[in-house]
Specification:
The complex is a heterodimer. A 3-stranded antiparallel beta sheet of chain A has the order 1-2-3, covered by helices on one side. In chain A, a hairpin with a 2-residue loop joins strand 2 and strand 3. By secondary structure, chain A is α+β, with helices and mostly antiparallel strands. Chain A has helices spanning about 5-15, 60-75, 80-85, 90-95, 100-124; strands at about 25-35, 40-45, 50-60. Chain A has 5 helices and 3 strands. Chain B is an alpha/beta fold. In chain B, strand 11 and strand 12 form a beta hairpin. The longest helix of chain B has 20 residues, at about 65-85. The chains are: A alpha+beta, B alpha/beta. At the A-B interface, helix 1 and helix 5 of A face helix 12 of B.
Chain lengths: ~120, ~425
């Protein structure tokens, strides 16, 4: 079977980590992909300058859900500056697959949500 | 639409070079024809030959190549006019695609004829290209935009059309065949009722002209649009058919060279249709290619194309009905084209498989389908659906390819079950 649906990706899809919402989030953000209707929301709590809790919610394809699940694990304990430094390549590396331009948007949806949340954090 | 002549899809496949290629190590099963079709060698060669031997700009040069190119371009217009039974070749305007043709009508006829308080009617099953231009027009002019309802079975609710026609209606714009449900709408009936109410009618034939015999004179519509790339023709080729009397009264859409009669420093007068609406150097080779596509389809016979697609759709519905967790939207097989949109859940679960994932798994097996809203988001909302998967057939598709589609759906169910 194609590399895209490798076991670790399917595992994050079937058993998403950190799924849910946070009432006391320090920043939250939500975006949709109008092409396919996928929606991802992130709630992040920051304590002592580092991410102490992160939750994601929403619905979407295997790639967008697995990517959101992995991202919540990846950002745990990171500083806000480190979050701002996350690049598209970090997400592809995290997934461990190469993607075409359409599926890349699915993979990057959760990172875009995080980036928008960080923008709002700066405004407040 | 008799079924006097059957087509042989296996024989026709040899005419389409791309169908010989493999995708992910499997023979390509191209089931995304509602998005765009593939091209036969006859069309590819016609474009190639035109560039190699006859190309020049058209209509103004007096040299040999310009005369040959002009003749080829205008011959393509004749072919298209005959293909759709246009009463006058001057009613056939070449555009880039159906979208541009609808925008042309919205920006010229629309802005000259639709005002505050007027009503424009569309339907809930329109492609965005036959919805958004009317949203923009009615918002700008203060007119009202109303939608004919779609029934749960995927048909137009004609009683709702009648209610909407009772008022200051200027235009009814509707799709001949739905690009999601596959529904073949009763176009002649709708045109008759709209005309009786004093409205003009635009038919979006992007999903009908490529697939069944269409006769604009019998339909009696005022405007009809379609795209060449969905009917074996080149991208960048499209058609607006308009009733000549209406076109003659319409202001131009784009202005510039090729569409004027006389230009002074401060003023210009317009050429007659069709050139009034073909400003600038048009897509000449693409029009020639569209003419070749029309020849090819006429050779196969549109009644035979339609019969073949209906047969494939019926077979696909039957096969998909045998797969637990598959839900097809739209009417029964005898009322639809070769468009089959559906959703899939994992068996014994309500967990749905995202169409993107389904399409990806099918692609691994060489089967190309579309996943998403298919540019018809309001229709998906009407049915309470997120994105769907869509298989759409054409003259070169086979029952064996339908079998591969169904097998791919089962593979995806196995892969994504917990």
């Amino acid at each position: 079977m194609n590399k895209l649906y490798r076991e670790h990706i399917l595992d994050h899809y079937r058993h998403p980590r950190n799924q849910g919402t946070l009432d006391d989030a320090d920043f939250s953000s939500e975006l949709d992909n109008p092409v396919c209707g996928d929606v991802v929301r992130l709630d992040v709590r920051v304590e002592g300058g580092r991410v102490s809790e992160a939750r994601f919610s929403g619905h979407g394809c295997v790639v967008s859900i697995a990517s959101a699940s992995m991202l919540t694990e990846k950002i745990m304990g990171k500083t806000v500056e480190e979050l701002k430094g996350l690049q598209d390549e970090d997400v592809f590396e995290m997934l461990g697959v190469t993607l075409g331009p359409v599926r890349a948007k699915c993979a990057l949806l959760s990172l875009r949500v995080l980036q928008e949340g960080l923008d709002h954090l700066d405004e407040t | 639409m008799g079924n006097q002549k059957r087509l042989d899809p296996v024989a026709l496949r040899a005419d389409f070079p791309i169908l010989a290629r493999e995708v992910n190590g499997r023979p390509l099963a191209y089931l995304d024809n509602a998005a765009s079709s593939q091209r036969p060698r006859a069309v590819i060669d016609a474009v190639d030959e035109f560039y190699r031997a006859h190309y020049a700009n058209i209509h103004r040069g007096v040299h040999t190549l310009s005369e040959e190119a002009t003749a080829a371009y205008e011959e393509a217009r004749d072919k298209v006019a005959a293909f759709i039974h246009a009463p006058d070749r001057r009613g056939v305007i070449f555009t880039r695609n159906a979208t541009e043709a609808i925008n042309l009508v919205a920006y010229t006829w629309g802005r000259a004829n639709v005002g505050a308080g007027d009503r424009v009617i569309v339907t809930e099953m329109e492609h965005h290209s036959n919805l958004v231009p009317w949203q923009v027009l009615t918002r700008e002019t203060g007119a009202e935009l109303a939608s004919v309802a779609v029934t749960d079975e995927g048909r137009l609710d004609l009683a709702s059309l009648d209610r909407l026609l009772d008022g200051p209606v200027k235009l009814v714009a509707f799709t001949h065949v739905s690009n999601v449900l596959g529904t073949l709408n009763p176009a002649q009936e709708i045109v008759g009722r709209a005309h009786a109410a004093g409205a003009r009618v635009l038919v979006d034939a992007a999903q009908s002209v490529p697939h069944l015999p269409v006769d604009v004179a019998a339909l009696d519509c005022d405007f009809l649009v379609f795209s060449g790339h969905k009917m074996c023709g080149p991208t960048g080729s499209g058609v607006l058919y308009g009733r000549l009397g209406l076109l003659e009264e319409m202001p131009p859409f784009l202005t510039g060279g090729g569409m004027i009669r006389r230009v002074s420093r401060t003023d210009a007068t317009w050429d007659a249709p069709p050139s009034r609406f073909e400003a600038g150097t048009p897509a000449i080779a693409e029009a020639v290619g569209l003419g070749a596509a029309v020849d090819y389809l006429s050779g196969v016979g549109m009644a035979a194309v339609w019969a073949h697609e209906q047969e494939l759709a019926a077979y696909a519905l039957e096969r998909l009905a045998g797969v637990q967790g598959v839900r097809v939207i739209g009417p029964p097989a005898d009322e639809r084209s070769g468009v089959v949109a559906f959703t899939v859940t994992v068996p014994r679960s309500i967990e749905s498989i995202h169409p993107h994932d389904l399409a990806q798994v099918l692609d691994m097996g060489g089967v190309a389908i579309r996943a998403g809203h298919h540019c018809a988001q309001p229709l998906h909302e009407r049915f309470g659906l997120g994105p769907t998967a869509r298989a759409s057939f054409y003259l070169y598709n086979t029952r064996e390819e339908v079998d591969r589609l169904v097998a791919g759906v089962r593979t995806a169910q196995g892969l994504f079950s917990a």
